[in-house]
Specification:
- The protein is built from 10 helices and 21 strands.
- The protein is an alpha/beta fold.
- The strands form 4 sheets. It has a 7-stranded mixed β-sheet with strand order 13-12-11-10-19-20-21. Strands 3-14-15-16-18-17 form a 6-stranded mixed β-sheet.
- A hairpin with a 5-residue loop joins strand 17 and strand 18.
- The longest helix is centred in the N-terminal third of the chain and has 23 residues.
- The chain starts with a strand and ends in a 5-residue tail after the last strand.
- 40% of the residues are buried.
Length: 481
């Protein structure tokens, strides 16, 4: 049943206007990221997930290698490599990093040894690369870039083994952009009607430094209580809200061992208790007007390892009553109006940024798509469940929209494959830092940033939007990278 938007306006015509919320079909495709109760065991070795990753990527890599370097290229395993003979080898990268955090280094502090200085990024000139397949491993040298590579990436390299036992790389390739099925859009989209999905991340509820006004403006914007008739009409075309993690602030987490888990505490003065109540109220306001998908993030009360499971229903006693409120996994995969969305709350992009010299986060997001993997650094530097016979993070089909939440700034880019694949890549900015969200047009796959700004000269008096009635609809052009 379509929701009705009610909003005060200046003219008598607008006062009587009631706009129905538009709707689109919805199919949650995140089943592969959900745990089955009987299979949630952590006794397995992590080597098995690497083996499953390489096994699934091998056919794709072989096709890519033969397409780039010729059908007669010699593809062999490391055990069959002969010294001085040029060949192609497929395997998984392992990056040796002296500055990488280690539990052994943390233990050394307890024994009075000098700890390493803290680092924001962990690359150095002493880093080296190792290629590993099902049989053995070998050190890589040559043209491959050590600084931009990360552990867990599946790659094909061409070169020859030197007498020193190292493999001299002459050229290399990753998997290509995955294949993409033709999307069957909803009839309304085919007929030229616009429908939008709103993506936001990093609400940061519970932070002592958070200004509550932008969050109120966000809710009022979605529910059609701000601006003029044109703004209300745009609001009515928003068919779903995706909240991409970090709904709670980092301050709500327990950092000291003797504090225990604050999310389970019975003390009413715990920061997390009030924050969860506030979150429940916010989601209630949203879900009463529009379908909402809520993903967990690194600062939220969910499991630490990927894939993060949906929030427990008991957290939302009020919002949970609405069928329009859905707790989903991180990563998240769904079809909205026939458009396929795939994304995470940002851990994968942030982790690759820390363990490589790649400075452009959009390039990092595109790299994960080309590598056919949502989180290549898991489980090495990014925690994940020790799967045995599968790797659910492998991207088997190119999404129409591929996103990463909780990023410092908004960016978007359209990536194309050689078979006509097209994917809109979006970095969703941290709302607590930028007071902004993203609108994606399901019909055109165009993306725009919406800013919620308050004029400083009006603060302390009547709050207004920057730009008066049309202020919430303030956009920035698409950043091409």
């Amino acid at each position: 049943m379509a929701e009705t938007l009610h909003a005060p306006s200046q003219s008598s015509h607008e006062q009587s206007a009631k706009l129905e919320r538009k709707s689109c079909s919805y199919d949650n495709l995140s089943k592969r990221f959900e745990f089955e109760s009987h299979s949630r065991r952590f006794t397995q070795q992590y080597s098995q997930i690497y083996a499953a990753r390489l096994m699934e990527a091998r056919p794709v890599l072989e096709r890519t290698a033969r397409k780039k370097w010729g059908a007669d290229i010699l593809i062999t395993k490391l055990t069959d490599v002969k010294s001085g003979v040029r060949c192609c080898v497929l395997g998984t990268l392992f990056k040796v990093m002296p500055l990488k955090p280690s539990i052994l280094k943390e233990i050394s502090e307890e024994h009075g040894l000098n700890p390493l200085p803290p680092h924001g990024r962990f690359t150095s000139e002493d880093d080296s690369l190792i290629l590993e397949d099902e049989s053995q491993r070998i050190v890589l040298t040559g043209v491959i870039s050590t600084s931009t590579s990360v552990t867990g990436t599946v790659i094909a390299v061409v070169g020859l083994e030197l007498g020193s036992g190292k493999f001299e790389v002459e050229k290399y390739t990753y998997c290509e952009v995955p294949s993409q099925e033709i999307s069957t859009l909803d009839l309304s989209l085919q007929q030229g009607e616009d429908r939008y999905v709103l993506m936001v991340s990093g609400l940061g509820i519970g932070s002592s430094k958070r200004d509550p006004l932008p969050l109120d403006l966000l809710v009022d914007t979605v529910t059609g209580q701000l601006g003029g008739l044109a703004d209300h009409q745009l609001s009515s075309k928003i068919v779903r809200v995706i909240i991409a993690g970090n709904v709670l602030s980092e301050e709500t987490k327990a950092h000291k061992k003797d504090e225990g888990t604050k999310f389970l505490t019975r003390k009413v003065d715990a920061i997390s208790v009030d924050a969860v109540k506030e979150l429940d109220e916010l989601l209630t306001r949203l879900a009463s007007s529009i379908p909402v998908d809520v993903m967990p993030g690194p600062s939220d009360p969910s499991n630490y390892t990927l894939p993060q499971q949906p929030f427990n229903k008991c957290m939302f006693p009020e919002a949970g009553r609405y069928l329009t409120m859905t707790s989903v996994t991180n990563p998240y995969n769904a079809k909205i109006g026939g458009v396929r969305f795939l994304g995470t709350s940002g851990q994968a992009v942030n982790d690759i940024y820390q363990f490589s010299d790649r400075d452009d986060r959009m390039d990092i997001l595109e790299h994960t798509l080309v590598c056919n993997h949502l989180a290549p650094t898991a489980p090495d530097t990014l925690g994940c469940f020790p799967y045995v016979s599968k790797d659910p993070f492998v991207i088997r089909e190119c999404p129409d929209v591929f996103f990463s939440g909780n990023q410092p700034r908004f960016q978007s880019r359209v990536v194309s494959g050689d078979k006509g694949q097209q994917s809109l890549l979006v970095l969703v900015p941290d709302f607590s830092q930028t007071a902004s969200f993203v609108l994606v047009n399901l019909r055109t796959l165009e993306c725009q940033l919406q800013l919620l700004r308050i004029r400083s000269d009006l603060m302390g008096r009547d709050e207004k939007f920057e730009g008066g009635e049309e202020g919430w609809d303030k956009t920035e052009p698409m950043d091409e990278g």
